[in-house]
Amino acid sequence: MLSSGINVLAEGSNMERLLKGLLVTAQIAFVSIIISSFLGIAFGLVMTTKSKVIRLLSRFYLEAFRIIPILVWLFLVYFGITNMFDIHLEGEIVAILVFSLWGAAEMGDIVRGALESLPKHQQESGKALGLSLLQLYRFVLIPQAIRRMLPGAINLSTRMVKTTSLVVMIGVIDIVKVGQQIIEVSSLKVPTASFWIYGLIFVFYFIICYPLSAFSKKLETKWES
Amino acid sequence: MVILNENKQALLEIQGLRKMYGSAAPVLDDINLSINKGEAVVVLGPSGCGKSTLLRCLNGLESVQGGDIKFSGKSLTGKDVSWQEIRQKIGMVFQSYDLFPHMTVMENIILGPVKVQKRQEKEVLEQAAQLLDRVGLLNKKDVYPRQLSGGQKQRIAIVRALCMNPEIMLFDEVTAALDPEMVREVLDVILGLAKQGMTMLIVTHEMGFAKAVADRIVFIDSGKICEVAKPDEFFTNPKTERAKQFLNIFQY
Fold first, then answer.
1. 3-state SS of chain A?
2. Domains defined for chain A, CATH in brackets
3. Burial tier of A132 (Cβ tally within 10 Å: 0-12, 13-18, 19+)
4. Burial (CB count <10 Å: 0-12, 13-18, 19+), residue B154
5. CA geometry: angle at B214 spanning B208 and B216, to 5°?
6. B191 close to B213: Cβ distance less than 8 angstroms
7. CB A137 within 8 A of CB A49
């Protein structure tokens, strides 16, 4: 029974379809992660400002993404915004948009935390050398902050990869959706199909996420030595 | 009480300086002090008397609420002061080890000269090597700060400030966080600078060192200058009661 079950993976164009689904998942995740990294650094810098109004606004933005489920955000943009302004947006575009905005908010908070954890005298000794504010951030503060924010940033990235499974709900055919379609078709013939398909999806997610944590481990040990 | 030495050129002139945090009593009040080129002035006083704050006012790390500071004749209290330019000429070393931990010793030293002063890297590297050699740490040029002892870090922080070719150096209790056996090596470097004629304003708690290095002692208590004297006079025969009390604390 087991030996015949595994065949479902190779049947027809099943494998090809699964890989395509994987590509969609990976694309949404990595594009969003890259955009959030840049926007997040910018947002993190904004959040360290002394202005109370800006702090309050950024807090509001961050909490909006923390409190409201990502699924609701996806629906809001995919159905709500498009309906309101009478435009059409591809599900994938909406997914990248929502994930980037969410990632930027969370990444910003990680960057803010890292910057604020740096000892104050680092800033002062940089200033005492005559560095401009831009130079101070570029050469002294951000390089040190990046080392401190790395664990949090990698954690966020893997969370983003996993959360992409919600895009099914706005009609994007990602790896999970492809898997469900194959299972539906084959479950009568192959009762164990769901085990094999979801097993493979498990492996795929691992393949996407593992390099991220391996990469961060490598960087951390490199910076420690 | 204005202390002016008319036959020498004053590099730094502090006139009626006043520093306050909010509406609380001033941290510094009516500070008048002028420092001549080549002079080493040591600031003494009990903890919290405003010594460090005074130094921080001089390179713009603290705002001032009254009075004036003149550096080479130019005022440093206006709104249009370019601190980036001024700070290149006023070197400062802090109490906390303030090297940048993600850069090697050499990278720490050349950052300012190359990025701020836009000098040729090759020329800066040569000068840095010379300065490092002078403090006996040339062999450490490629290591990271965490591999250094506190005393070594402070000597490198001094080299980093010197490599900008400053006109005056401010030392803010640079040995206060060091283990006793490392204090000496750092103070020797500062003493060497004094002998070469570097203009310096030094805040310290090392009385023996103050006596050895100072051309003048400035004693501050509760944010005011109480006494200005030659070191011999100050340590053997202080004029004010508060200075006497202060010096007594250091004697067993």
1. CHHHHHHHHCCCCHHHHHHHHHHHHHHHHHHHHHHHHHHHHHHHHHHCCCCHHHHHHHHHHHHHHHHCCHHHHHHHHHHHHHHHCCCCCCHHHHHHHHHHHHHHHHHHHHHHHHHHHCCHHHHHHHHHCCCCHHHHHHHHHHHHHHHHHHHHHHHHHHHHHHHHHHHHHHCCCCHHHHHHHHHHHHCCCCCCHHHHHHHHHHHHHHHHHHHHHHHHHHHHHHHHC
2. 2-224 (1.10.3720.10)
3. middle
4. buried
5. 125
6. yes
7. no
Q: Given an 8 Å threshold on Cβ–Cβ distance, is B161 in contact with A128?
A: yes
pLDDT for the residue A1: 47
Q: In this complex, do B94 and A125 lie within 8 Å of one another by their Cβ atoms?
A: yes
B115 with A125: Cβ contact below 8 A? no
Q: Which SS3 state, helix, strand or coil, does residue B228 take?
A: strand
Instruction: Locate the chain A residue with the closest alpha carbon to B112.
Output: A129
Question: In tens digits, what is the pLDDT along chain B, a chain of 252 residues?
Answer: 445 544 457 899 999 888 888 888 888 888 999 999 999 999 998 888 888 899 999 988 988 888 889 898 888 887 788 888 899 999 999 988 789 999 999 999 999 999 999 999 999 999 999 999 999 999 999 999 999 999 999 999 999 999 999 999 999 998 888 888 888 889 999 999 999 999 999 999 889 899 999 999 999 988 889 999 999 999 998 888 888 888 888 776
Closest CA to A110 of A156, A63, A78, A61: A156
A105, A109, A114, A120: CA torsion to nearest 10: 120
Instruction: Assess whether pLDDT exceeds 90 at residue A191.
Output: no
pLDDT digits (tens, 9 = 90+) for A172-186: 888 888 888 888 888
Interface of A with B in 117-146 (CB under 8 A): 119, 121-122, 124-132, 135, 139-140, 143-144
Report the side by side order of strands in the sheet with B66-71: B28-36, B10-19, B66-71, B74-75
Does the distance separating the beta carbons of A119 and B84 come in below 8 Å?
no
Cα A103 to Cα A60, A90, A154, A205, A217: the distances in Å are: 15, 20, 11, 19, 21
Question: At A47, phi and psi to the nearest 5?
Answer: -70, -20
Measured between beta carbons, the chain B residues lying within 8 angstroms of A135 are 115-116
How many Cα neighbours within 13 Å face the side chain of A44? 27
Parallel, antiparallel or unpaired: strands B224-229 and B216-221:
antiparallel
